[in-house]
Amino acid sequence: MGFGAAAAGADPHPTQSTEYQAVAATLASTEAERDGLEEDLDEANGELTTAEDRITELEAAATTAGDLAARETQVAEREAAVQTRETDVQTREDAVAAQEAAAAAPASSTDPRFGTCKEARANGYGTYVKGVDPEYDWYRDADGDGRVCEP
Ligand SMILES: [Ca+2]
User: What are the residue boundaries of the Excalibur calcium-binding domain, all occurrences included (predicted)?
Assistant: First the structure.
Protein backbone atom coordinates (compact mmCIF):
# COMPACT_ATOMS: atom_id res chain seq x y z
CA MET A 1 0.00 0.00 0.00
CA GLY A 2 1.33 3.32 -0.98
CA PHE A 3 0.14 6.85 -0.71
CA GLY A 4 -0.13 6.77 -4.42
CA ALA A 5 -2.97 4.27 -4.22
CA ALA A 6 -5.56 6.89 -3.19
CA ALA A 7 -4.55 8.98 -6.11
CA ALA A 8 -5.47 6.14 -8.41
CA GLY A 9 -9.04 6.38 -7.16
CA ALA A 10 -9.83 2.71 -7.79
CA ASP A 11 -8.14 1.27 -4.73
CA PRO A 12 -10.25 0.97 -1.54
CA HIS A 13 -9.32 3.05 1.52
CA PRO A 14 -6.43 1.38 3.36
CA THR A 15 -8.65 0.73 6.40
CA GLN A 16 -10.89 -1.36 4.18
CA SER A 17 -8.12 -3.80 3.26
CA THR A 18 -8.50 -7.40 4.40
CA GLU A 19 -5.07 -7.30 5.95
CA TYR A 20 -5.95 -4.17 7.95
CA GLN A 21 -9.24 -5.68 9.04
CA ALA A 22 -7.45 -8.81 10.18
CA VAL A 23 -4.86 -6.83 12.12
CA ALA A 24 -7.56 -4.60 13.59
CA ALA A 25 -9.56 -7.65 14.66
CA THR A 26 -6.49 -9.20 16.24
CA LEU A 27 -5.74 -5.92 18.00
CA ALA A 28 -9.31 -5.67 19.27
CA SER A 29 -9.16 -9.25 20.46
CA THR A 30 -5.81 -8.66 22.13
CA GLU A 31 -7.09 -5.49 23.79
CA ALA A 32 -10.17 -7.34 25.00
CA GLU A 33 -7.93 -10.09 26.37
CA ARG A 34 -5.72 -7.45 27.99
CA ASP A 35 -8.77 -5.82 29.55
CA GLY A 36 -9.85 -9.20 30.85
CA LEU A 37 -6.39 -9.84 32.27
CA GLU A 38 -6.35 -6.40 33.87
CA GLU A 39 -9.69 -7.16 35.49
CA ASP A 40 -8.29 -10.47 36.72
CA LEU A 41 -5.26 -8.62 37.98
CA ASP A 42 -7.43 -6.07 39.79
CA GLU A 43 -9.43 -8.88 41.33
CA ALA A 44 -6.26 -10.70 42.33
CA ASN A 45 -4.87 -7.50 43.79
CA GLY A 46 -8.09 -7.04 45.71
CA GLU A 47 -7.84 -10.57 47.08
CA LEU A 48 -4.21 -9.96 47.93
CA THR A 49 -5.12 -6.79 49.80
CA THR A 50 -7.85 -8.67 51.65
CA ALA A 51 -5.40 -11.44 52.49
CA GLU A 52 -2.82 -8.90 53.65
CA ASP A 53 -5.44 -7.21 55.80
CA ARG A 54 -6.31 -10.59 57.28
CA ILE A 55 -2.64 -11.30 57.98
CA THR A 56 -2.35 -7.90 59.66
CA GLU A 57 -5.39 -8.73 61.79
CA LEU A 58 -3.96 -12.14 62.68
CA GLU A 59 -0.58 -10.62 63.53
CA ALA A 60 -2.31 -8.05 65.71
CA ALA A 61 -4.28 -10.83 67.37
CA ALA A 62 -1.10 -12.85 67.85
CA THR A 63 0.61 -9.81 69.34
CA THR A 64 -2.36 -9.26 71.62
CA ALA A 65 -2.26 -12.92 72.62
CA GLY A 66 1.47 -12.63 73.29
CA ASP A 67 0.94 -9.48 75.31
CA LEU A 68 -1.84 -11.21 77.21
CA ALA A 69 0.41 -14.17 77.99
CA ALA A 70 3.16 -11.80 79.11
CA ARG A 71 0.72 -9.90 81.30
CA GLU A 72 -0.59 -13.13 82.78
CA THR A 73 2.99 -14.05 83.65
CA GLN A 74 3.50 -10.64 85.22
CA VAL A 75 0.28 -10.98 87.17
CA ALA A 76 1.37 -14.42 88.39
CA GLU A 77 4.74 -13.00 89.44
CA ARG A 78 3.07 -10.13 91.24
CA GLU A 79 0.69 -12.50 92.97
CA ALA A 80 3.68 -14.57 94.09
CA ALA A 81 5.37 -11.39 95.32
CA VAL A 82 2.21 -10.38 97.14
CA GLN A 83 1.99 -13.86 98.66
CA THR A 84 5.59 -13.57 99.83
CA ARG A 85 4.89 -10.15 101.34
CA GLU A 86 1.76 -11.46 103.03
CA THR A 87 3.83 -14.25 104.50
CA ASP A 88 6.44 -11.72 105.62
CA VAL A 89 3.75 -9.51 107.12
CA GLN A 90 2.25 -12.53 108.89
CA THR A 91 5.65 -13.44 110.25
CA ARG A 92 6.18 -9.88 111.49
CA GLU A 93 2.68 -9.77 112.95
CA ASP A 94 3.40 -13.02 114.76
CA ALA A 95 6.64 -11.54 116.07
CA VAL A 96 4.87 -8.38 117.18
CA ALA A 97 2.11 -10.44 118.79
CA ALA A 98 4.73 -12.48 120.63
CA GLN A 99 6.44 -9.30 121.81
CA GLU A 100 3.12 -7.83 122.89
CA ALA A 101 2.26 -11.02 124.72
CA ALA A 102 5.64 -10.92 126.44
CA ALA A 103 5.13 -7.26 127.30
CA ALA A 104 1.60 -7.89 128.53
CA ALA A 105 2.68 -10.82 130.68
CA PRO A 106 3.32 -9.95 134.29
CA ALA A 107 6.78 -8.55 134.59
CA SER A 108 9.20 -10.98 136.08
CA SER A 109 8.73 -10.52 139.78
CA THR A 110 12.11 -11.90 140.65
CA ASP A 111 15.52 -10.37 140.47
CA PRO A 112 18.36 -11.96 138.49
CA ARG A 113 19.68 -15.03 140.18
CA PHE A 114 23.26 -15.04 141.34
CA GLY A 115 25.48 -17.78 142.65
CA THR A 116 25.84 -16.16 146.03
CA CYS A 117 24.38 -13.37 148.09
CA LYS A 118 27.72 -11.63 147.84
CA GLU A 119 27.23 -11.35 144.06
CA ALA A 120 23.60 -10.30 144.49
CA ARG A 121 24.62 -7.61 146.96
CA ALA A 122 27.43 -6.50 144.65
CA ASN A 123 24.84 -5.98 141.92
CA GLY A 124 22.47 -4.04 144.15
CA TYR A 125 20.05 -6.85 145.03
CA GLY A 126 18.71 -8.01 148.41
CA THR A 127 17.58 -8.19 151.10
CA TYR A 128 15.16 -11.10 150.53
CA VAL A 129 12.63 -12.09 153.18
CA LYS A 130 11.43 -15.67 153.72
CA GLY A 131 7.81 -16.20 152.57
CA VAL A 132 7.80 -12.84 150.80
CA ASP A 133 10.56 -12.83 148.20
CA PRO A 134 10.97 -15.92 145.98
CA GLU A 135 14.65 -15.05 145.80
CA TYR A 136 14.96 -16.05 149.48
CA ASP A 137 14.91 -19.72 148.44
CA TRP A 138 17.88 -19.26 146.13
CA TYR A 139 20.30 -18.41 148.89
CA ARG A 140 21.42 -19.86 152.16
CA ASP A 141 20.15 -18.17 155.31
CA ALA A 142 23.21 -18.84 157.34
CA ASP A 143 21.97 -17.14 160.49
CA GLY A 144 18.41 -18.42 160.09
CA ASP A 145 16.77 -15.05 160.64
CA GLY A 146 14.43 -15.44 157.66
CA ARG A 147 16.42 -12.94 155.64
CA VAL A 148 19.10 -13.54 153.03
CA CYS A 149 21.47 -11.24 151.32
CA GLU A 150 20.96 -8.81 154.12
CA PRO A 151 23.52 -6.06 154.56
CA1 LIG B 1 19.92 -14.20 157.25
Answer: 113-150
